[in-house]
Amino acid sequence: MTVTTVPAPSSGTYHRPPAGHRLRWSISDALTLTRRDILVWLRVPAFIVFTIIQPVMFVLLFRYVFGGSIKVSTRGGYVNFLMPGIIGQSAAFASFGTAIALAREMQRGIIDRYRSMPMARSAVLVGRLIADTVRLVVTVVVLAAVGYAVGFRFENGVVPAIAMLLLGVALGVAICCVAGWIGLLVRDEESVGSVGLIWLFPLTFVSSAFVQVHTMPGWLQAFANNQPVTIIIDEMRALALGGPLVSHGWQSALWLVGIAAVFGYLAVRAYRKP
């Protein structure tokens, strides 16, 4: 009987690729998944309905059904009061597609496949966030165009108008981080839809998005005045129509950065959890 001796592998030192190479690979992986997520969005009609058509329906309903009975002191009437709020609310709701998509991919084992592939761990979440940012930009631009068609006008110049739209996108991105964490934590597509309604509806409707806060009961005003959606939408309204920006500017920035940082970290932890 002949025994074959297998030589021991030569000892060597693993050289980690330079930081610049790792960064380029991470960006390339994230952009690849961004393209994949956008293609899914374009090929699934339900995503387009939820992202674009539903917010347009909200604009038309509040403008022509409820608008006549809601009195505001805003220059230009209720439509000018409404549009910053509807853009902020729609950006928040559109971002919840992040939770549903991640929960679906967890349920179908796609995330497990990603984990086993030689790709940057950050690519899945970063790619999803970039794709959702693209969706949010499309949604906000479409809503602004529809708003102009039904009578809304920017009263404060071009640069503040662009800043208002970007602030709406930023609100949506921050909510995306929350939604991503929920989707990765719950891991069930049907349950995620229910969980999202529990916190997202009160946060957006108990705010200054559709009515002036002083018309609410006193006990509810305390919450509505101090929650992030009201603060950010008030800032958006000031940018669109003119008004004091300093009062809510720094608060909006703190809320957006804080929400993105906290829930982005939680989403990364949930993604790494098997």
How would you summarize what this structure contains?
This protein has helices at 19-43, 45-66, 78-95, 97-107, 110-116, 123-149, 158-186, 189-205, 218-226, 228-241, 246-272. With 274 residues, it is mostly helical. The radius of gyration is 23 Å and the shape is elongated.
Walk me through this protein's architecture.
The chain is mostly helical. The protein contains eleven helices and no strands. The chain is elongated and about 60 Å long. The termini are far apart.
Keywords:
single chain; 274 residues; 11 helices; 75% helix; disordered N terminus
Distance between the termini: 47 Å
Basic shape: elongated
Helix content: over 70%
Taken as a percent bin, the fraction of beta residues is: under 5%
Helical segment count: 11
Cα radius of gyration in angstroms: 23 Å
Mean pLDDT: 84
Number of domains: 1
What order do the helices and strands follow? Answer: HHHHHHHHHHH
- Biggest pleated sheet: none
Tell me how many strands there are: 0
Query: Low-confidence parts, pLDDT < 50 over ≥5 residues?
Result: 1-10
Class based on secondary structure composition and strand pairing: mainly alpha
